[in-house]
Amino acid sequence: MNREIKSLQQIFKIISSISGIDVPDIKKLLQTLLKHTLNLTNISNAFLVKEKRGKFYPQLHIGSYNDKKIDEILSRLSSQIDLHKEKQYIGDNLLIYTIETRKSNRFIIFLKSSSSISDEYEKTFILYLKAAANVIETGENYKKYLEKEKIAAIGLAANMIIHDFKNPLASIENIINLIKETSQDEVIIECVDIIYDAVEELNLLTREILDFSKGKKALELQNTSVPCLISNVREHLQLQLEENNIFFESICLFDNEIIADKKKLERVLINLIRNSIEALKSKKQEKKIIIKVEKTDENIRFSLSDNGKGIPDDIKERIFEPFVTRHTVGGTGLGMAIVKQIIESHKGEITFETRPGEGTKFVFTIPVNL
Fold first, then answer.
1. CA end-to-end span of the chain, whole Å?
2. Do both 205 and 261 map to the same domain?
3. Confidence check: pLDDT of 210 > 80
4. What is the per-residue DSSP string for 38-79?
5. pTM (2 decimals)?
6. Of 125, 144, 163, the domain-final residue
7. Do 228 and 356 fall within a single domain?
């Protein structure tokens, strides 16, 4: 047993020093290593989880439970666990430890098949999982460092492009204003308004890319009518929806105002709906996008679902990371990262569920009053 402990400690030390390995690959490698010790400890399942705003998110799992069962257990525990206790039991076979890594707390949860597990095995397995937590954190930190480097690079490029971009946009705006002042033709004025909106969107998009690259999260808070918000977004995307024969339905069960950054929330909804439109383009049968808004406690809950092709398995875990895109062509790969940043700056959170060939549903909540 001691020899096995020493050899595994060496392996963890080596893995920790390999900075270039992807976090998902690290987790897969750790799972393989820890499965061996699971058999020695008489533990049926073990989770390494991270707590965020009172909820648990699995980081590593060794054992026989599937993802659905794990989610059920973690959801139930969220309302039962005192996060300040070092070690506690819930029921006969559930044992929870709090462990500290370099920058955050994680929690080890054991589901034991027998209560006769020895202290030596328990301590050994805790040692392995603590090492695993630090290995994962090393990978996550290195990944964040690489992302910052990429974002800094795109920020530099964006600065140069936008500097040259501003003059043509200003010229277009001046011509638009001149046409609006001199033309009496309603069709021309309507077309000019569409062009003006497109120019405004380009201006907004360039500012967002710059803000994202600089990590800016400042909000321009104002009273925002939810029905008006949905209506503006629908009007903005109406042409794309019609061109792709997509049925769009909005169900607004909250018709009051919230305190929010209206423009940024519009950007969130536009990005999500555009992704749905892209996912539906290749579909030949009925295409649907449904957005629903309702109040839950002190939050507003937005859900947006489509019956498109779903999110590929290989990018599901990375969908909110910069430079990850669901589509084979087009896009900056920043859309979902911007969505997440805006929602989190509103003190909200976003989740999703997807099934290949059946569709995707995004749900995000934000407080009614920030």
1. 54
2. no
3. no
4. HHHHTEEEEEEEEEETTEEEEEEEEES--HHHHHHHHHHHHT
5. 0.59
6. 144
7. yes
